[in-house]
């Protein structure tokens, strides 16, 4: 039986399929969907933003929210006050490109530094992601300015097209800056160490190269690289034991959750548990054991975006769980971890594309929707349901 026919039959029989790195073949999962009547949380519609992409909390409980078109918004959930932060860069807006992620430095209270990613124009018809840092100075009216901006990293080479920038940011327990650099829909650069596309990047907080990166001896840009063989990485999160987990949009039928290993090669585009969108087969991971297989593969894709590993007190039953936003699946997906293993545990149908997930200072879970029909994407707050 052709593989494509078998896959179609399997998807018709099981609404959610996943594989783990220790499994030889996908096993049908029990339906993890939780009906709204049984959700343990209430949803509060807090505000709307124009094409919101990412958010981060500041120590005072206020939020920085990026809008894809190029604006950085400072928003106070308590008062509803919002202001524009000036000093943002010009962005290459279009396709998946624009203003991207934003995170505060671990010592923000002392140094005031924030880091942000964006797509920028190159020579000719080329584009690439960049990451900059600047000092955030807030105004009394709720807005602010970015001062002394400095670019600390760029994708290389810049290429044509408007897809697969990645540019998610995270600070690790080691104080290093981690960046997801997607392969820009160009496939082969994910395996090319003369490019930093399709890689997970690890830098010092000033953009310098850590001496213990695995490929330092190869020189630039390989010296930035922690792992390679990635497609479109849109989520980075560290667990309580300091392990880095990453999710990425795979090709058709191949979304992944990966445990990132130093110097690891995750195989794309040589292997994937999905297929090309034009129907061409890609060999599965089990055909090439030298590549690291995903811990979870979604055969019926969720289109993951945004990622936290929860450690708050408001939902004690979820401490240590991962939460992933789903775009095409219009869902919030809870992942249960057991050491280096993981599985989808629950899925909540949110009715809209979920772009971003964050944990608030009090342990509430916050979501950003993709914009819908020009009405703006909602900022949602999830808190325990009364009773």
From TrEMBL:
Q: Where is the signal peptide?
A: 1-23
- InterPro entries noted in UniProt: 6-blade_b-propeller_TolB-like, Glc/Sorbosone_DH, Quinoprot_gluc/sorb_DH_b-prop
Taxonomy, superkingdom: Bacteria
Which residue range or ranges hold the Glucose/Sorbosone dehydrogenase domain? 50-375
Instruction: Print the keywords alphabetically.
Output: Signal
- Give a yes or no for keyword Mitochondrion in this entry: no
User: What protein name does the entry list?
Assistant: Glucose dehydrogenase
Organism per entry: Stenotrophomonas pictorum JCM 9942
């Amino acid at each position: 039986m052709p593989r494509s026919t078998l896959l179609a039959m399997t998807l018709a029989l099981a609404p959610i399929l996943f594989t783990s790195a220790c499994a030889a073949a996908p096993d049908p999962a029990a339906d993890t969907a939780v009906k709204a009547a049984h959700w343990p949380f209430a949803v509060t519609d807090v505000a709307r933003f124009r094409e919101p992409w990412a958010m981060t909390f500041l120590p005072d409980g206020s939020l920085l929210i990026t809008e894809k078109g190029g604006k950085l918004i400072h928003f106070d959930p308590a008062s509803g006050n919002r202001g524009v932060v000036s000093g943002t860069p010009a962005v290459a807006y279009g396709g998946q490109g624009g203003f991207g992620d934003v995170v505060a430095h671990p010592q923000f209270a002392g140094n005031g530094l924030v880091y942000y990613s964006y797509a920028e124009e190159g020579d000719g018809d080329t584009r690439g992601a960049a990451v900059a840092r600047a000092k955030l100075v807030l105004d009394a009216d709720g807005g602010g300015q970015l001062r002394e901006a400095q670019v600390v990293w760029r994708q290389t080479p810049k290429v044509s097209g408007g897809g697969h920038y990645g540019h998610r940011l995270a600070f690790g327990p080691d104080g290093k800056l981690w960046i997801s650099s997607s392969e820009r829909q160009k496939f082969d650069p994910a395996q090319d160490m003369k490019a930093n596309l399709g890689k997970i990047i690890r830098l010092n907080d000033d953009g310098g190269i850590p001496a213990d990166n695995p490929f330092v001896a190869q020189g630039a840009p390989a010296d930035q690289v922690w792992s390679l063989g990635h497609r479109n990485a849109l989520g980075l999160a560290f667990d309580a034991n300091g392990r880095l987990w990453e999710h990425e949009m795979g090709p058709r039928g191949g979304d992944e959750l990966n445990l990132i290993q130093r110097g690891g090669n995750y195989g794309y585009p040589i292997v994937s548990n999905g297929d090309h969108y034009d129907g061409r087969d890609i060999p599965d991971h089990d055909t090439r054991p030298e590549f690291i297989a995903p811990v979870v593969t979604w055969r019926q894709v969720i289109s993951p975006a945004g990622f936290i590993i929860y450690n708050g007190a408001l939902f004690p039953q979820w401490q240590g769980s991962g939460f992933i936003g789903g775009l095409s699946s219009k869902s919030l997906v809870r992942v249960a971890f057991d050491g280096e293993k993981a599985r989808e545990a629950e899925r909540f149908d949110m009715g809209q594309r979920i772009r971003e997930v964050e944990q608030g200072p009090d342990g509430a879970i916050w979501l950003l929707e993709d914009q819908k029909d020009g009405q703006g994407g909602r900022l949602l707050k999830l808190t325990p349901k009364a009773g």
